[in-house]
Amino acid sequence: MQIKQYLDQKKIDYQLLSHRPTFTAQQMAAEEHVPGLNVAKPVVVRADGKYLMCVIPACYKVDLDELQRQLNAKELQLASEEELAKLFPECELGAEPPFGNIFGIKTIIDKSLTQDKYLVFQAGSHEQALRIIYHDYEKLVQPQVLEFSYHLH
Fold first, then answer.
1. Which of 45, 81, 99, 133 is least surrounded by CB atoms within 10 angstroms?
2. Among candidate residues 148, 152, 138, 120, the one with its CA nearest the CA of residue 22
């Protein structure tokens, strides 16, 4: 299901943003003139064989050791591009929206994003982003909140 259709179906207000193609969350933040702290970047990991979508600010990086410790997982690794292509067939690679629930994947969000009034994220393509109120996102996705990322310098 396309993210815009999902939000329309759930009657969630959003703003559709179009921009030149961007291939990183930080590029998208710059293109949309949005602070990197408001851009939700999904990172998919495999913890003990189960996929998890980890949502962090664009200017952050997942602390895999800390995430593994908090999840009490024996094994944790980043999903490969081939796995991402299978998990998100309707999305351009690297432009997945941070809605693991739509794809049957548990979503974990870094606590740093829960303080934001709004989130901006790729809408399944490298040329479109969506902006929604954080509380609407939280209501739809019901992510688990953990602290597992750090700011890139």
1. 81
2. 120
pLDDT of the chain, 153 residues: tens digit per residue: 589 999 999 999 999 999 999 999 999 999 999 998 999 999 999 999 999 999 999 999 999 999 999 999 999 999 999 999 999 999 999 999 999 999 999 999 999 999 989 999 999 999 999 999 999 999 999 999 999 999 987
Domains of the chain, start order: 3-151 (3.90.960.10)
Backbone torsion region of residue 64, taken as left when φ is above 0, otherwise alpha when ψ lies between -120 and 50, otherwise beta: alpha
Helix (H, G, I), strand (E, B) or coil at 27: helix
- Residue 62: burial class (beta carbons within 10 Å; 0-12, 13-18, 19+): buried
Contact residues for 67 (Cβ-Cβ < 8 A; gap 6+) = 45, 47, 54, 76, 108, 146, 148
Q: Give start and end residues of each alpha helix (H) in the chain.
A: 3-9, 25-32, 64-71, 81-87, 134-141
Torsion (CA) 20, 15, 40, 87 in degrees, nearest 10? -80
How many Å apart are CA 53 and CA 49, to the nearest integer?
13
